[in-house]
Amino acid sequence: MNESMNEKHILSILVENQPGVLARVAGLFSGRGFNIESLCVAETNEPQVSRMTIVTIGDLGVVEQIKKQLNKIVDVIKVIDFTGKKFVQRELALIKIRARPENRAEVLRMVDIFRCRVIDVGAEYYTVELTGDEGKISAFLNLIKPMGIKEIARTGALALGREKK
Amino acid sequence: MEMLTGAEILLKSLEEEGVDTIFGYPGGAVTDIYHQLVKTDIKHFLVRHEQGAVHAADGYARASGRVGVCLVTSGPGATNTVTGLATAYMDSIPVVVLTGQVPRALIGNDAFQEVDIVGITRPCTKHNYLVIDIADLSRTIKEAFYLARSGRPGPVLIDLPKDIMSMTAPYKPVKKVNLRSYQPTYKPNLRQLNKVLPLIREAKRPLILAGGGVVLSKGSEELTRFAKKLMTPVTTTLMGLGVFPPRDQLWLGMLGMHGTYRANMATSRCDLLIAVGVRFDDRVTGDIDTFASNAKIVHIDIDPSSIRKNVAVSIPVVGDCRLALEILNDLLEKEQLDGINEARAPWLDQIEEWKSTKPLAYEQGDVIKPQYVIETLCRLTRGSAIITTEVGQNQMWAAQYYHVDKPNSFITSGGLGCMGFGLPAAIGAQVAKPDKLVVDIAGDGSIQMNIQEMATAVQYGLPIKVVILNNQYLGMVRQFQELFYDGCYACTDMACAPDFVKLAEAYGAVGLRASKPEEVEPVLREGLAIEGLVLMEFRVEKEELVYPMVPAGAPITEMLLV
Fold this sequence. Notes:
The complex is a heterodimer. By secondary structure, chain A is α+β, with helices and mostly antiparallel strands. Helix content of chain A is 27%, strand content 41%. In chain A, strand 6 and strand 7 form a beta hairpin. The longest helix of chain A has 13 residues. In chain B, helix 22 links the parallel strand 19 and strand 20. Chain B starts with a strand and ends in a 23-residue tail after the last strand. Chain B folds into three domains: 168 residues, Thiamin diphosphate (ThDP)-binding fold, Pyr/PP domains (Rossmann fold, 3-Layer(aba) Sandwich), CATH 3.40.50.970; 168 residues, TPP-binding domain (Rossmann fold); 170 residues, Thiamin diphosphate (ThDP)-binding fold, Pyr/PP domains (Rossmann fold, 3-Layer(aba) Sandwich). Chains A and B meet through helix 1 and helix 2 of A and loops of B.
């Protein structure tokens, strides 16, 4: 019955801040064979409520089923799918870039163009902080790759709906 | 405020929920609870294995419509409940399982008899709890019962650390549940239901498919009214047996892998399928692409995730099945239904032709046919017994040849297909309905999976009748092997079995045996007339197969017939 294309969906899930709630959500994805591309979770302005932002991939039928199954979890308060909605999206990445004397200037130029910040300087590596949507982070990583990347830590996507203007 | 121990708070809270029956098994971590339990009016049934306790609580729930309760200790006591929880979860049965846990200070220490039962049972419970603060105890119990029986029902587990059971705290009964994240939809959307009417008007070959949701919502009467008003034939899933009178001309029998010829043909040919409280399991649909491919489908279910999970539908209706049928019946009051008998005649004639040309059939020869045993049992008990089944051929023959005439009386592990379910479930059903005749229809394989519960039934004087169809094989798997694995009977020979008659006697029950066809009826008559637990063994045709059969994944019209 699912003939639509596989697409990326950003889901924002408000959950009761109960022990085990992350395991319930993650277990649902693994147990039913759904994909998790990234998952990000932290408390909201209401301490009893946490927000999980999950990026998943599936066709419309699968994503509909994911949302229904999420809603079935007793501790899940609300599920928002940003697909087709106006929203803002950011991800934070920390990247250790090889910075030898001959390419330090180039690294700093890239950092400047992408509006990143260098947050740690070592003998051979700069650690750079970058925020943006997924496209910006991928573009930066592609450009910086030839210079040598030692390590990356990424948060995965975070998203909120846009307010009415 | 009254100061009570955790165990006392637990029991008070259970009494607040109206619990008067618990199936359980004591152990170190629940000794405090047991110490207090015997001082209450709650009746405790000591099973012989914790799996039996959950199945008994499950059978109790299915027969009574109330929440079944089970109490076991930590570690192995808790892990032994997993199969029972999964069984109840698949069939949406309201059960609350209370497990002991090691004291809080030892949790995570690999302490003696410690397991993370909340972690283990997360995917096979509707919800579960570890109580880590005694202040949460009574609220947790209130919530657990509410969750178990509301919305789409299901099992809930509460893990109770031993130190919480022995410490004291003030007790105040909790009166209301407040779960903002859990608000099941009972009242169906009227606009959606109104869309059903034109489809009903246009349909020439409508069909009703009812499932366990109709049993759980107590919607059998509304369903029957709906079907008769519209002169629309009814088929059910295994879980729906009993929701429609089996002797009515509109009754088609069960559909699916071992469904009747007419039910499967009607499903395939109908132009409108009104599916109520079903979830389109693969054993029902067979090949999904050809399933009801000529029909518009209306799907009524309380669980939104059941809708469009497996089958595309024209009109989804989320809500309580009984309420939805009630509203549909009210809406139909305003409809002109004159001439409906004439309009339905060609469709009902077609169904009658399917029925008469390809009925459920077997030939009773020199060796006892299992179907004959069930058919005779049904005749002698006039279809009014509560039937529990084990799983396999016995289950399918029971479904085909025992025509239960009421809901809550065909108690079977439908979703999980759990062997060993029938006997403990019969215990629960008999406890719930002490005046009813409860019969467990079993095979020689599955009865041995929880045979130890014979002792429980004897201890409490439960007059259950067990009918064993002994073909000396794990018959359903052997059937698969005969039909699809070139007759290679890998490990399905069960000829080495106990002497069931002597075994019954060893447990203090009565054992009877029939080896020839002419002994079937006398043995059944004798066994049914005896007051206590009776085990009747029928030495049946070893290689009898369940027909019709749809090979797994094939269209349900492609039935292998006798």
